[in-house]
Design a protein that fits this description.
The structure is a homodimer. Chain A has a single domain (2-82), classed as Phosphoribosylformylglycinamidine synthase subunit PurS (Mth169, Chain: A), CATH 3.30.1280. Chain A is built from two helices and three strands, in the order E-H-E-H-E. The first copy, chain A, has helices at 18-26, 53-68, and strands at residues 2-11, 36-49, 74-82. Chain A binds chain B through residues 8-10, 20, 23-24, 26-27, 30-32, 34-50, 59, 62-63, 66-68, and chain B through 8-10, 20, 23-24, 26-27, 30-32, 34-50, 59, 62-63, 66-68.
Chain lengths: 83, 83
């Protein structure tokens, strides 16, 4: 079966996110001073073939830990749906 | 009230996503040849103050169009929840 995965990879809460910090600092300049605490990570979508949802999740898990996320600095979460 | 927004910004489907293409090509090397069509965008979380959910959505919409997303190359979607 074919599955689609949606993965969010974010910098750990304890870590400084310089990109997010810069964007937070720019918000008053576009008239939105109430926006705070911007954090920027990655959103990844992919498709895969797997026998069932458990196998699909295992494949996504492997992809995240081995390639997509840097576990020292980032955490990940994902959803897998059949398509 | 305080709201949290989760924003996904992805390259348009019609556009080539070189970063996603490179990652797709690497998947067989880590033993996951069934993964295809990887696309990589941004996941942004932020907090904001607004009187109600409608105003919160309007603020996020402005942030996306004016600063966060490049509408020529990217599309965005978001959810806003009270915290």
């Amino acid at each position: 079966m074919k599955y689609a995965a949606h993965i969010n990879i974010m910098p750990h809460k304890a870590l400084l996110d310089p990109q997010g910090k810069a964007v937070t600092g720019s918000m008053p300049n576009i008239g939105l001073p109430t926006i705070a605490n911007v954090r920027i990570g990655k959103h990844i979508t992919l498709e895969l073939e797997a026998a069932n949802e458990t196998e699909a999740k295992a494949i996504v898990e492997t992809a995240c830990t081995k390639l997509l996320a840097n576990l020292i600095m980032e955490s990940y979460e994902y959803t897998v749906v059949a398509i």
